[in-house]
Each structure stands twice: as C-alpha cells, then as structure tokens.
User: Fold this.
Amino acid sequence: MNKKQKQKKFLFILDNYVHVSLKGNSLMFYNPLTGKILEYTGSESVIKLVKRLQSPKNLLVIRLTEKELLNPEISQFVRDLRGYLMGDLVDTSIAKGNPIQMMPMVKVHKDAEIIKTSPSRSVGEHMMLYLAEVSIYINNTCSLDCEICGSAYKQFLCCTRAGEKRKEEQDILLLKHVFRQLKASPLSRVNILGGDICKFSKLDELSAILNGQSQSFKKVFYIHYLNLLHQEEKFVLFRGDSFSLKILVTFPVEKNQWKRVLESLQANGIDAQFLFIICSEREITEADELVSLFHLDNYSLHPFYNGRNLLFFRQNIFLDRADLQEAKPTSGEILARQLVNPLHFGTLTVLSNGDIHANVNESRLGTLKRDSIYDMVYKEMVRGKSWRRIRKRIEPCKRCTFEALCPPLSNYEYALGRNNLCHIRDMG
Ligand code: SF4
Ligand code: SF4
Assistant:
C-alpha cells in the first residue's frame, strides 16, 4: 500500500451486554443472550485490542485500520466476535460518528461504602432493608441419632443437636423481641428449626407470634419425619397464613413409620415438602422409589458430603462446561455475583445457643442476648465475610476467567475444603 494513500478505517464495536474476563493471558467472552462462550489464550494482539476497547474513553468502540485487520490474530478475532453475535465491524465511510455505548458497571451499594469512609454518618434503618431471610434454631433437643446431625446443617438448612452437651432452648421473650426488630425489614422468609421443634416447650406461643406478624413473609418449619410420629396435636401449629412444613428424610427410611407419618399428614390436611438427604446414587434411587410409590409431588434432593463420598460429589455436583452453558447466567446475575454472594446475602442464622451468624461456617457475629439484629446486619455489611464471599476474591477462582459465570459459592465449598467444585479448571 502506498504510504501516502489514506488507509481505510473501520469502527470495531464490542456489544455492551458481552461479559469479558481477562486473567493473565487468558481471555473469555460470554454472550448472555445466546449462552455462547469464546476463549483465547496467549494472543497478545487480541489482549491489547480488548484493553483498548475496555478503556473508559473508548466505551467499547475503537477504530481499526486496514493494516491492523491484516494481522491474522485480529482478523480471526473480529470474525469470531461477529460470528458469536458479540460485536461488529463497520466501515467508517458509512458510519456517522462513533455509536455511544453505556459500559455496564458494578456499583457497590452506597451504605457500606459510606460507613467505611465516614463512620460518623448515619445510614439509619436502611441497613435492615438488606435482611431477607432469618433462620432460628429454637432448641437442640432430639431423641434421634442421625449420622448427618453434626454437619448437615452447615451444608444446607437442616435440624441439628449441635451443642447438645448443654440442652438449649430459645427464650420466648427474646424471640418476641427479635420479631419486633424484624418489622423494620422487608423479610421474605423465616425458617424455624431444632433439634426436634415439637420438643420446644413454647411452640404454641411461637406459632401465635408468627401468626400475628403483620409482614407477609413465609414461615417455614423444618422437622425430621420420625419426629412427626404421634405429634398430630401439634400439626395445627404448623398451619397458618403463609406457613409451610419441610420434612427431612434420611436413609435408610423406616418404611412403617414413614407410611404412618404420611397418612397422618394426609388425614390432617398438612401439605408438606419432603427434603431427601442424599449421600449416594443408591439413595437417589431409594428416594425416587418413595416418590413414585407414595405419589409425592413436592420434594427435593439435598446432597450431603459425609467425608467419604467425594466421588458422588464429583459425579453429581461438580460443574462441567456444559452445566455452565446450560445455566446461561443473565447480565444482571453476572454483575450481582461480582459484588455479593446471592446465596447468602441478606441471611442470618440464630443457633440454639443464641449465637448469630451470617453463615454458620464462619465465626459468630454476636449473640441474641447482647446484640440487636440491626447491629448484626451492620456488622456483616461493613466487616463481614459471608455476604460478600465471591469467587473473584478467593483462590483459585480469582485466577479463572469463569469466576462470574460459575454459581455463587455455597456451603459445599466449605464442607469439601475447596472452592473449585468443577471439572473445568484444575487449578488446585
Ligand atoms: S433429626 Fe435432626 S436433630 Fe435429630 S438427630 Fe437427626 S439430624 Fe439431628
Ligand atoms: S475454578 Fe472456580 S471459577 Fe473457575 S470454573 Fe472452577 S469453580 Fe468456576
């Protein structure tokens, strides 16, 4: 090309809904509209181009010359991006000026930032608006002896006798005080768990308090099916506006008792959900058999890591690339995951000894006797580890281009002692 001859120029546009992740020399593009993923490793010229696109002054639109497009890496990249509906190339002779694109930005919610930078400024009752779900262990008494008891509650919502050396039962006056404080929050759900909640001496009073709450949050009781045997007189306490009952099922199932519980629930018009706690493929089969034999239509399976079933988790829980593509996270979900952990954000748990946790796998925030719920929300927002426990902050995910696409960190990562429950990146 003659140097004096003016080079043709093109506008290269990266669509603003495309999620781009650059870690080291690895690049990943994800189109949330199609679920398609595009990856490059070690391509210096493509990395430079993407950095130019992402510069705030360019707003995802840059000019490319004909010469730049002769670079095979760049021309292939441009072709790929157009083919994956992630961007476009427009001849400047037919484009009038640069198109304006808004860059998606993750906005840290102001309250936490204001407190950190100027602690004397009040953010008032706003903090309570973050609270969405509270789980309360009302006692730790139970006459059963399930193998899962000491650790299942750290993986998913489940009863436990944890701390059973000292029999503990929540003070009903303290619970009343808690529900008064909760009036300031747009709570969507309160979970009530034990031990065996039927052994809670003030269950009728608790049921009345929940019934009297003006907010319309769901009130969910958790109990093991064997603890429902001969408890028909208590069933009425689980019935109320927005009340529901979740029944935990461990294996092996005691068929006669199971049948009796089902019959008495049916006779009393109690509509419950069954939560099967699963450690193996065999237990999945057993759960399936019970579901079909007893025509259960409201149930769910909850894998439990018992320290011996890693293979079961590898085969059934660990993510692979197909799972990620199938999940098709939206742009909103991706942005949210870069800021907070949507599984844990806004949740508090009160254990039977009164300890309050944002996550039972982390140390307590305070205690029910000494601290207010407001203070606990404040503490977790400002200094806590659970609500903001996100992949981009932890090893090895923070080095992986998929960190915003993968599901939020759950409690299984704590149980298995590794953050990458995946077959995608073997990063240790
Ligand atoms: S029913 Fe619940 S609290 Fe009782 S032993 Fe089993 S897991 Fe523990
Ligand atoms: S290493 Fe972490 S972020 Fe990467 S794919 Fe695995 S779980 Fe997801």
Residues 391, 396-397, 400, 402-403, 406, 420, 422, 424-425, 427 surround iron/sulfur cluster (ligand 2) (CB under 6 Å). The CA atoms of residues 113 and 119 lie 9 Å apart. Residues 9-91 form one domain.
